[in-house]
Amino acid sequence: MRKKIVAGNWKMNPNYPEALELLHYLNNNIPREHYNVDILICPPFIYLSEAQKLFNRTDIYLGAQNASSYTNGAYTGEISASMLKSMRINYVIIGHSERRQYFGENEEVLAKKIKLCLQENVIPIYCVGETLEQRNANEQFDIVEKQISGALFDLSAEQINKIIIAYEPVWAIGTGVNASPHQAQEMHMFIRNLIMNKYDDTISRELIILYGGSVKKDNANELFSMPDIDGGLIGGASLKGEEFVSIINTTKNIVNK
Ligand code: PEP
Fold first, then answer.
1. Fewer Cβ neighbours under 10 Å: the N or C end of the chain?
2. What total number of domains does the chain contain?
3. What domain range is 97 assigned to?
4. Does ligand 1 come within 6 angstroms of the Cβ of 31?
């Protein structure tokens, strides 16, 4: 059975006092009994250590939003997977569409990042998804297949077992227009089939696939109830404490798949 995950991606937000306020809010308001859902918060690097000290509970995990494709050394401004590991940060978002778009990250670089993270036992949440133009041209399946095969298919069965994939259609990120449950389910099933064809049925059945793109408390339940959707990667709504907690609460009655 796959576990459900609700993850918040704060991106490059907010400033320090606001970050502290939000962390306190989450620490105090995420229900202790949270229905078999793993909660993950991915603030900017600079707040990770503070978050770790502040959370007086072990049921909220922390993740980074990026990791270097280099191991260590003279790479000014970079943060390595081994640094994350040494800080006990167990998750990292890799290949978010904003990193692909603004920082030119391609599958070759992303494959390196993923391998370094796996070497350090930091779990990569690998993001894939098509742009609006690509969907309008009906290329979404080709694009996602290329993103997955290009960055993941060199991994061994043992390594792929540790990966989480997030399907985040670029046209749904930050736009207020989410993929419909049907569109998201269709792509999640496609991804699961890709993994089954390359690896095997068990690996594919156990793969956690999150949906991301304008998830809110009003659409979370319907999206997360779909058979191949195992929770969400939440951007904008994760910056609003109350909304994020409401999203967690919508998972209450969703059975694990
Ligand atoms: C994201 O950036 O990962 C994301 C899903 O953003 P939003 O929820 O704001 O669409």
1. N
2. 1
3. 4-255
4. no
